[in-house]
Fold each of these.
Amino acid sequence: MKLGTRLEKIEPYSPSEYNGMIRLDANESCFDLPKEIKAEIADKIKSVEFNRYPDPYASELCDKFAAYFNIDPENVVAANGSDEILSILFGAVLDYKSTVLLASPDFSMYRFYADLYGQNTVIYNKPIMTQSDCSDLFLKAKNVDLTLFSNPCNPTSEGIDAKDILNALSETDGIIVADEAYMDFWGESIIDKIYTNKNLIVLKTCSKAFGLAAARVGFAVADKKIIEMFKKAKSPYNVSSLDQAAASVVLSHPEYLKKRTAQIISARNKLYNGLKPLLTSEMRMSEPKANFVCIHTARAVHIYEKLRKYNIAVRCPEKNILRISAGTENETETLLTTFGKVVKECDRQ
Ligand code: PMP
């Protein structure tokens, strides 16, 4: 029996175990949905015919999503999280053995899917604390089949200016994928530029600002020809009726979504401003654009482990990076007190 050869060198994503911890490690919204919206979802779910397969094209959901972002539904495909979009992109839409340009650090699942499906990767190592300076990344984009990055970036929380991406799009025939999972927190989306750039794919998710990580709903937005490829390759019933119902309801409340997003941004600013005076001279933290902050420090692993002992989960995606998501007022207060204590403890060791 010969199985699993392709998996031998694959580094799987390692989600945390929590056991009652404060969860500041997954960049989810720190606010659950309000009761009234949950009740509306429950009502909608009551009318789901559980014996029937879901709508394969999630038409109502895509219509609501398109209306929210003011685009045409024919330019949208929905999936089981934007993770599934990545899987379809690397596994089916891209030709075999394409060359893919990724940045480092960036969202780890890009590399995961590229390796899993045997694509060739070129890795651009980002200089730290440069905010939007990605000119070197885009120079390399001219020679590859596809360039993919998160904007704002997970884990650095820095952003690439729209004009630089548009410039890069005009200088290459390759595909450029802008993963805007956290863009609601920054407001520099290029989603409307799919009409003038046939080589642009924009990824979106309901898991962050929209507070629906439990539902697993993500989208790709692009020229119709590319969207048709995703539709051809995806499994027929990839978004469950329950998830379609939940996300359709949430997307019908644009005013609520805008208010919530503003609350998360304010929670993120409290975290950022609270952490600033606690940093030691070797630590660096750039101004965050997403719903989390990123601290560059040689003590990242140490602080990460100590915080876990105090029941706080943060993420340490690389040995010198700490990523901390915005929390509720109480969560942030606990984090800040504990962070200060842990840094002092580290100083003594
Ligand atoms: N893109 C980025 C940049 C992310 O950080 C994440 C989740 N952490 C995803 C995509 C995946 O999101 P989803 O929940 O839609 O699968």
Note: Residues 51 and 342 are 53 Å apart (CA to CA).
Amino acid sequence: MNVHESEKIAGILQSRGYTECCEAEYADMIVLNTCCVRETAETKIYGHLGRIKSKKKRDAILAVCGCMTQQPGAAEKLAKRCPFVDIIIGTFNLSLLGDYVDEFIHTGVKVIDVRRSENDVNTDGTVRNIARSSGINAWVNIMYGCDNFCTYCIVPYVRGRERCRSVDDITTDVDSLLKSGYKQITLLGQNVNSYKYKDVNFVGLLKKLETDKKYRLKFMTSHPKDVSPELAEVMADSKVLSKYIHLPVQSGSDRILQAMNRNYTRNEYFGKIDSFRRVMPDIGLSSDVMVGFPTETEDDFRQTLDLIERVKYNNLFMFIYSRRSGTPADKMPQLEYSVKQRRIDTLIKNQFEISKEISKNTVGRVCEVLVSDKKDGKCYGKTESDAAVTFTSDSIGVGDFANIKITSAKNANLSGEVV
Ligand code: SAH
Ligand code: SF4
């Protein structure tokens, strides 16, 4: 999501005549796109700013964007601690960045805009020039914000309430991306399953994006409480939707899930996974899991280990719970850091073995690979479930789909040959 936001920032600046520069010391303008979902990302920003200050040209413009600036008091703190920052702009009015650059150049007066505009459906969606940077893959926002208020999460506070883009805007974007040759489109939203625009829900939107043209359609992120059996059926029947879903579970313990305000139990979660596997036995699955949520006991943690063992995710994003000011979990009894560290180490080790086993079991299978890079006759691409595959071919190139028989697996990397 943040990479896509950086593409929007680059697009705005390109439409004002700026071009990308490889080193901060040569740049006329430097933009730092920030994230505050976890504390580690946030502390890094101040370190980066210190380094940029010593490197940058004296008159280079320095701007800070992204959700970190949107926390109460954060923009003021940043302006005070780093007076050399010229523009601070939040997540709601990103489309105004170009105007603020012009304004700063003409007046030399610092600009801070972290105003919220909850009712404006488009907000940063009004950015028309997006400098897409990821080869054959393009991202399309279908909605902004989140209404779920999971007790650990800062997103609803810094990105506001849920706002959905219109079906027409989304289908127009996707059509034009396909015409430009993009082969994989990923629909973005904090909770895509609650998409609703007039009488069109998420499944309805997916149906509208079905075409005879060959491409890969993905979406993230899905909230387990909102995925429906209908979604599984539409995916199973679709010619374009990847047989892959990212379904963050966060914890395997019912007590913790309740304290997180996730609104599902582990059994309901297993039920959702079964409903996908019933109609797509080989579906790829990934998830986000957190350890060290306030009050998490050894038994709660064991239930998380048990859950990942049962589900067997192809890919797992694992996090240590991080306190976020203003969220309910920040006021709950906290765990020692050493406990959290030990738990994440165990989780990573267990998942490593699961991923290895999945890769090994892929040997001998035929997978559809979308090629994203090619060098010296070697093609690099990904399967529907995001596994990296390497194979050799003279005729197949970037943007092609190829049926590849997997011949060997080294950890998560697969090698194969053209069928
Ligand atoms: N809307 C998505 C993703 C939100 S942020 C969802 O609901 O899944 C991405 C991931 O960051 C979350 O899934 C969660 O695992 C993690 N995360 C969010 N807040 C966190 C916190 N305070 N500490 C640690 N990880 C967090
Ligand atoms: Fe955060 Fe929960 Fe919303 Fe995801 S669904 S963005 S974790 S509040």
Note: Residues 146, 148-150, 153, 155-156, 190-191, 223 surround iron/sulfur cluster (ligand 2) (CB under 6 Å).
